[in-house]
Design brief:
It is an enzyme of class 2 (transferase). The chain has about 350 residues and is an alpha/beta fold. The protein has helices at about 10-15, 15-25, 55-70, 80, 105-115, 130-135, 155-170, 175-200, 200-205, 225-235, 270-285, 320-335; strands at about 45-50, 75-80, 95-100, 120-125, 140, 215-220, 240-245, 265, 290-295, 305-310. The protein contains 12 helices and 10 strands. It binds fructose -6-phosphate.
């Protein structure tokens, strides 16, 4: 049941810290080394293709970035496009289907194509014994528990964390960076909890609820959550929302920016990536758009943003998970203000079983 929550979506957003605890439970062997039952220790894929749809595709984009950073060739593909032009499957290729339900027709079809091409397959899924879990060579569970609301929330966070674990195990590297990442992973559920208790997202959502459109920008690991922030916003508010790579803005989308289109930007830390994003945010502000920064407060962005949504400081790789919680709340409270049917948005189904 929804308990004290008005909607399943809200309940599931609030379940995220426990879902992440469950996702991490017993998945470390000694100290900083990850051990996932689904994959034999020492297995090193030569290349990884991640296939997925919708929110799960955004998780796949994030996973591909992480794997590449750790020296593994990796690409994310929209499942519905994969079968039309599958990339060549070479020896040692692994195809990972990222699918919460394990029943999405496009993803199953991409996985079947991969099997036919001779790739090893892995289902990264929530539902135990789902079709993807049964048909793939192996299944890696995200352990989120049941998700009722059509909009995926806690399962996205669990997908990202599972992809971090997968990248750590399959690259086999241990370094200071790995150690820092592992210790940040163990603190992540508490950070999510704290964010949920302190967020200003309801106020921000109300302030901008009558806007004509919403844009989300991010760079590097923040790019997939910009896409996800926009998807969540459009599917439950029915308002126009678009996510862009921060660097792409001036190549066209900047023409859409007005005083009536708030731009949400996530900036974490103060490295070169953050500074470039801050420069992009300044361009938006100079065009008169309201600017909302989701940030850990390290860069200079909070000095000129119109509103700031704070996230706890954490490892840069994991920060998108916290940024995304703010985006989920923003979409939720905007939709609530507009009186939308949050758990069952029009025209959408939880599990899409036709291609
Ligand atoms: C959006 C959403 C969808 C799903 C997509 C894939 O909130 O839930 O975009 O992510 O239909 O579903 P799964 O992950 O079950 O394959």
């Amino acid at each position: 049941t929804k308990g004290s929550h008005d909607h399943y979506m809200r309940k599931e957003i609030h379940e995220q810290s426990n879902a992440l605890r469950e996702c991490l439970r017993d998945r470390f062997s000694t100290g900083d080394s990850v051990s996932l039952d689904a994959i034999e220790d020492g297995y090193r894929p030569e290349s990884v293709h991640l296939v997925a749809c919708g929110t799960s595709y955004h998780a796949a984009l994030y996973g591909a970035k992480l794997l590449r950073k750790r020296g593994i060739q990796a690409q994310a593909h929209l499942a519905s496009e994969y079968a039309l032009s599958p990339p060549p499957v070479r020896d040692g290729a692994l195809v990972v289907g990222v699918t919460q339900s394990g029943e999405t027709a496009d993803t199953l079809s991409a996985l079947r194509t991969a099997t036919a091409e001779g790739a090893r397959t892995l289902a990264l899924t929530n539902v135990v014994d789902s079709t993807a879990a049964r048909e793939c060579d192996d299944a890696l569970y995200i352990r989120s528990g049941p998700e009722i609301s059509v909009a995926a929330t806690k399962t996205f966070a669990s997908q990202l964390v599972t992809l971090v674990l997968f990248a750590l195990q399959s690259s086999g590297q241990t370094s200071d960076e790995t150690e820092r990442l592992v210790s940040a992973l163990t603190e992540l559920p508490e950070h999510v909890q704290r964010l949920l208790e302190t967020t200003a997202a309801p106020t921000t959502a109300r302030r901008f609820a009558d806007s004509s459109g919403y844009f989300f920008i991010g760079r590097g690991v923040q790019y997939p959550v910009a896409l996800e922030g926009a998807l969540k916003m459009k599917e439950i508010t029915y308002e126009h929302a678009e996510g862009f790579a921060a660097g792409e803005l001036k190549h066209g989308p900047l023409a859409l920016v007005t005083e009536d289109t708030p731009v949400f930007v996530s900036v974490v830390g103060d490295d070169e990536t953050a500074r470039k994003t801050v420069a992009n945010a300044k361009e938006v502000k100079a065009r008169g758009a309201p600017l909302v920064a989701v940030t850990d407060g390290v860069s200079s962005i909070d000095r000129f943003a119109d509103e700031v949504l704070t996230i706890p400081r954490t490892n840069r790789t994991l920060a998108p998970i916290l940024v995304n919680v703010q985006y989920q709340l923003l979409a939720y409270h905007t939709a609530d203000h507009l009186g939308r049917d949050i758990d069952k948005p029009r025209n959408l189904a939880k599990s899409v079983t036709v291609e």
